Please model this.
Amino acid sequence: MKKVLSIVLTGALAASFVMSASAAEVIKIGGIGPTTGPAGIYGSSVQNAMEIAVEEVNALDGDIQFELMFEDDTHDAETSVNAYNTLKDKGMQILGGTVTTVPCLAVGAEAVADNMLCLTPSASSQDVIDLGDNMFQVCFTDPNQGLASADYISQQGLGTKIGVIYNSADPYSTGILNTFLAEAEVVGLEVLEPQAFTDDNSTDLTTQVQACKDAGADLIFLPIYYTPASQILKAADDMDYDVKFFGVDGMDGILSVEGFDTSLAEGVMLLTPFVATSTDEATVAFVEKYKEKTGGQIPNQFAADGYDVVMTLYKACTEAGVTADMAPSDVCEALKAVLTSGDFSVDGLTGEGMTWDASGAVSKAPRGMVIENGEYQPMD
Amino acid sequence: MQFLTYLVRGISLGSVYALIALGYTMVYGIAKMLNFAHGDVIMVGGYVVFFAFCKNGFNPWISVLIAMGACMLLGITIERVAYKPLRGTPSLAVLITAIGVSYFLQNGAMLLWKSDPKSFSSIVGINGLNLFGGKLQISAETIVTIITSIVIMIVLMWFVKKTKPGHAMQAVSEDRGAAQLMGINVNGIISLTFAIGSALAAIAGALLLSSYPTLMPTTGAMPGIKAFTAAVFGGIGSIPGAFLGGILLGIIENLSKAYISTQLSDAIVFLVLIVILLVRPTGLLGKKTTVKV
Amino acid sequence: MANNKKMKKTTRSNLLMFGFVIVFWAVIQVVSLTGHMTSKLNGLLIPVCAYIIMAISLNLVVGFLGELSLGHAAFMSAGAFAGIFFYTTVGATLPKAAALVISFILGGAAAGLFGILVGVPVLRLSGDYLAIVTLASGEILKNVLSALYIGKDSTGIHFSLKDQFSLGLKPDGKMLIKGAMGIPGIQKFSNFTVGVILILITLAFIVNLKNSRAGRAITAIRDDEIAARATGLNLTHYKLLAFVSAAVFAGIAGVLYALNYSTLVADKFDYNLSINVLVMVVLGGMGNIFGGMIAAILLTILPEMLRGFSQYRMFIYSIVLIVMMLFNQAPALVAWRQRLVSKVKGEDRKAEEKVETADASYFEEMKSKSNEKTGNEESVKEEK
Model:
């Protein structure tokens, strides 16, 4: 009885996978990212922002109408590929994802095989765009951030002895670190032994801060996301360690952590393409809508990247004359031609005049920001 | 001096592990099950304190009391709904259900409180110690956590050894069937155990987050696993063992971060654990059971 | 008479298992040939095969040997890394078929070696202590692999446990293993038929082992360690045999799994994965190979089925998991279910036989190895 029941149940579950795709009237954009699990905040930020952008595009009532289908991948490559296949069955024509790097590498390989255009908001590893010529990024490539940070620190003379605390289990962090160390050697920065942590031992980060303090670092470079960064700032404060901090775009969002004492972040410098407190019209409007949608949350850099993905696709689709009945592969060829044409540029939340080259990397200028009185101020 | 600083930080982390491990070992000792959801009850406790204390400015004592009450209720409910129907089956079944409960709590918290991290402000209002002219700092959170875990350890030992419900717990732990025949309300005792374990989880949550302030739905998972390791390290089921195991685990973790490798610290901690268990197969203070035919 | 009946029953259930796998394969072929295959179903085939092998092999340790292992994913990881490392380096210069066969063998061998390394000291422990040590060894492997960097340039092969920069690679160098990024750029190979063949091989091995002298020795150790020792069985030998065989197949499953994706990271094989495989085994019924296979299929496709619930997906998954456990194992529900069945069938004999469940808990039993009958109905019935 039990056996029969379970076999029937399994069969029924499996049968429901066998279906055929339906015809499309709108251009179907897929999105993939972690909306549950430890990395849940990144995926849900992108999802919310993409939904906002799609609503805006559709409200224009132009020829281009988007439908967004967003799937959860729990920051896991296997689930991410499953999500990709689900989206494909639903008739996805363009992929605006995935949000995190490792899943993006697995999904990217599938997208290359299918010749599906993939514009990722935030999977920033160099390996992502190296997969194929259909892979594009809205965020900076990690090596560029490491390079820019080392150059910036050395040009501005921000520190003499530089400590580094990074997440060795995170490709984003190690990717930045690697080029940072290489460039630091070139420009002659004195970098102390990098201090690592992993996702599993990140409960206590005081030891790493203590090691920087004992080694006499006067600037700590943090190529990490804002959650552990907030812990590091508190630890430094607790041990009366007066040191400057320099972060990358993952640091953005630190001011909007609920309950975080923003005075701890005073004087923190970061290179970031997006600042939620900017007063330009587009950012203000976006932050307003985002807060309304999420019950008061302030969008982070992931959200801004997600918004720019949709806006970039909108502009590119318009110029390429993409229509809803085109096959994904044809859409990909048309968009590739437009994106890399050289005269295509987008003014997005994360940068003015963003352009792409054939490698798929975005070119935009990072802005140096410093936190003063609980707000970002341009550094120069 | 440097070594002392690292040692103190290790003890600080260890005292948090100890506090969590006490809850683990308590439930294990009496209900004979690994409550994998314990770490997530800590997370729930943390959120309750966060909303009561950090958001609404309640008195820290009252906030923790509210959290203890909420976690007790949660613990008893979990036990009744998910564990009790499985009593009498191989306890691997209960273990799997506990894992289901752990997923349930994490994902429920994510739906309720969203996945964005919150920063917890310390519930400890006093100042830390500055020794040797400021060269050695001991934070107030560390002191409070250590004292709390010692007090809880002693109270638990007294409770189990000296009080009537405590004796009943021992009896249930020893032989559930015989305890039932002696007129002990086994279900009641197990519920009581879960209530105490969950209340401890609330305290652990508040103190964990006071020292290490990031709060998200998965906050309890890793400290939970580490504390489980600590409880086994000390000899699971043994109350002083859990305390000792927790403190040692914290010290080993932090010293290996400081002197060997920051990224391999977990590997080192677990390696030490394996070596110790090979030398003492029932943990540091575990009871050696002789197997009779 | 009774013996005869038992033979028939085990043969029948073995045939059923092999038949099920072959029918499963045939159905997929038909679906694929008639053009009804969806990308989603296609993408799930290889992971399902890999998890089936994982569940079968873990059953050997948990169901037959009766030891709790929380580190089965580590063997999968060891196999995957060894096999894929070979496949992406030396294997790239060999004919594809040869490269694949050697990768599978290497993966199994590496996992087996790791199994011996863990098993020899660990199997002296028992119960929770054994469980925590298997968990610990899995975390150690994950931690070390996540910090491992291997690169190759004109001056030779370099490796580091710190970061990529400290390798000091020349510009012509190529990274082979990139720490947290693992091994990227794998030439994908996903072939469902190969997956099914591997399942059949695993099944054949396990069924053979189970019905052999060694298999009876292993179940004897589970049921009563002291009695088994008293009859002169070499306990360490048989325990290690079960443990290492399980590790070898987990390693093979790891290679199969990793070949299906273009990137392989150590993080995937954490204790959560070990626990998921354990859930498959327990849900399917400890010692019940067929049940484990069904549970592996169910639990792999269930989260995908729930995609329609968007953000409630994993929440609902957890509830389904709890409910399934209660439905499958809770004595009250089991009795109720059987009353229902016997009402339908009009036979109460079976129901009575099944209602008896052991009262000693699993861990108590692990510790004391008492004579109390535990475990699941299936294995109990089979031994009768």
Q: What stands out?
A: The beta strands of chain C are 149-153, 156-160, 174-178. Chain C touches chain B through 63 residues (CB under 8 Å). The first strand of chain C starts at residue 149 and ends at 153. The CA atoms of residues 127 and 363 of chain C lie 6 Å apart.
